[in-house]
């Protein structure tokens, strides 16, 4: 696996995008899901990009400019090379390598220092999907199947389970994990009931609490 999937903090990171066509537009839409500040240089811009500027006026900046092979730049954390000129793309790739700038080239993977994978998200759950050589069509179809699977998760139930975990921080990690696993298999009402009982236990006078109790998640003595 040449490209290892990893998440980075996008806060205060600056991205330079060279090119203003549909490919650049798709990459920018993906980048906007993070907190990057994005600068785009191109002679012309796809209408989608013009529309996006209205939605993200403080994070997306377009500048009309004719790009040439001797173009130089600095001060950016990431570079996206997406012009329609292969020779220009090669020149920008060579420059990025020389300056050790992290870059992705969109017309061919080449020696790109990173790739932009398909992002899958459902509430707090998010991940990415890379085809690593599969056709873009197959990647799209598989990605849609995975996204459809994620859509089946009840976000309220996941939030309740997170609250349960927070209530159990004083337990051994293995015991805490097992309780969450058991509750995950039950319906949302069972999770709500367990959480309500834990809340009641924590607000009850310590002298009123039983010396031993049962685990509502398993129905057995704790």
From TrEMBL:
It comes from Urinicoccus massiliensis. Signal peptide: none annotated. It comes from the Bacteria. Residues 195-207 have a biased composition (Basic and acidic residues). InterPro entries: Met8-like, NAD(P)-bd_dom_sf, Sirohaem_synthase_N. This is precorrin-2 dehydrogenase. SUPFAM superfamilies: NAD(P)-binding Rossmann-fold domains, Siroheme synthase middle domains-like. It catalyses: precorrin-2 + NAD(+) = sirohydrochlorin + NADH + 2 H(+). PANTHER family: SIROHEME BIOSYNTHESIS PROTEIN MET8 (PTHR35330). GO terms for biological process: siroheme biosynthetic process. Keywords: NAD, Oxidoreductase, Porphyrin biosynthesis. One of its GO terms (molecular function) is precorrin-2 dehydrogenase activity. Pfam families: NAD_binding_7 (PF13241). Pathway: Porphyrin-containing compound metabolism; siroheme biosynthesis; sirohydrochlorin from precorrin-2: step 1/1. It is an enzyme of class 1 (oxidoreductase). Its EC number is 1.3.1.76. The keyword Cell membrane does not apply. Residues 195-222 are annotated as: Disordered. Residues 209-222 have a biased composition (Polar residues).
């Amino acid at each position: 696996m040449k490209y290892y999937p990893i998440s980075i903090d996008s806060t205060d990171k600056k991205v330079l995008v060279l090119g203003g066509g549909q490919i650049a537009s798709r990459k920018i839409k993906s980048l906007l899901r993070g907190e990057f500040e994005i600068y785009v240089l191109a002679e012309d811009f796809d209408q989608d990009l013009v529309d996006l500027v209205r939605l993200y006026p403080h994070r997306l900046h377009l500048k009309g400019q004719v790009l040439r092979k001797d173009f130089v730049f600095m001060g950016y954390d990431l570079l996206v090379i997406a012009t329609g000129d292969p020779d220009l793309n090669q020149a920008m790739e060579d420059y990025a390598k020389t300056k050790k700038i992290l870059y992705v080239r969109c017309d061919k993977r080449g020696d790109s220092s990173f790739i932009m994978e398909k992002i899958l998200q459902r509430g707090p759950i998010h991940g990415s999907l890379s085809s690593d050589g599969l056709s873009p069509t197959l990647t799209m179809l598989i990605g849609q199947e995975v996204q459809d699977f994620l859509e089946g998760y009840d976000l309220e139930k996941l939030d309740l389970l997170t609250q349960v975990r927070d209530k159990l921080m004083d337990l051994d990690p293995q015991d805490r994990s097992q309780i969450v696993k058991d509750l995950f298999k039950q319906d949302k009402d069972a999770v709500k009931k367990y959480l309500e009982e834990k809340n009641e236990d924590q607000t009850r006078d310590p002298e009123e609490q039983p010396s031993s109790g049962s685990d509502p998640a398993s129905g057995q003595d704790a």
